[in-house]
Specification:
Number of domains: 1
Number of strands: 12
Radius of gyration: 14 Å
Strand content: 35-45%
Strand order of the largest sheet: 3-6-9-10
Distance between the termini: 35 Å
Number of helices: 0
Oligomer: single chain
Length: 108
């Protein structure tokens, strides 16, 4: 059973740092700015989408060397691309990592 009964928007009004996003609701969540969400986690950051369609509309700053991987059956939630930092966003679920100073991702 979902905690929400209709779509909801969560506004990030100050900069935040996260390592994992977890979505599991048939009713959509939208995470909106203006605050930037910095994605930083040892071993890679993850967006877990168990169910539903959700949107991350706030600016994302993926820290250099960090991989952001979407897992789960739900829809890809990112609507904005990397706002800075140099990490890599991978929608396929395949783990990729961009090393600081490199131009190409490599499988990991």
């Amino acid at each position: 059973m979902s905690v929400i009964s209709q779509p909801r928007t969560i506004t990030v009004d100050q900069p935040q740092t996260v390592g994992t996003f977890n979505f599991d609701s048939l009713h959509g969540y939208t995470i909106a700015g203006p605050g930037t969400i910095t994605v930083d986690a040892d071993g890679g950051a993850t967006i877990n989408v168990v169910s539903g369609e959700h949107t991350i509309a706030a600016p994302l700053a993926i820290v250099a060397g960090v991989t952001l991987t979407k897992l789960g059956a739900g829809a890809e939630p990112c609507r904005r691309r990397n706002a800075g930092g140099g990490g890599r966003h991978d929608e396929s679920g395949e783990r990729r990592r961009r090393e600081p100073g490199s131009r190409r991702g490599r499988g990991g």
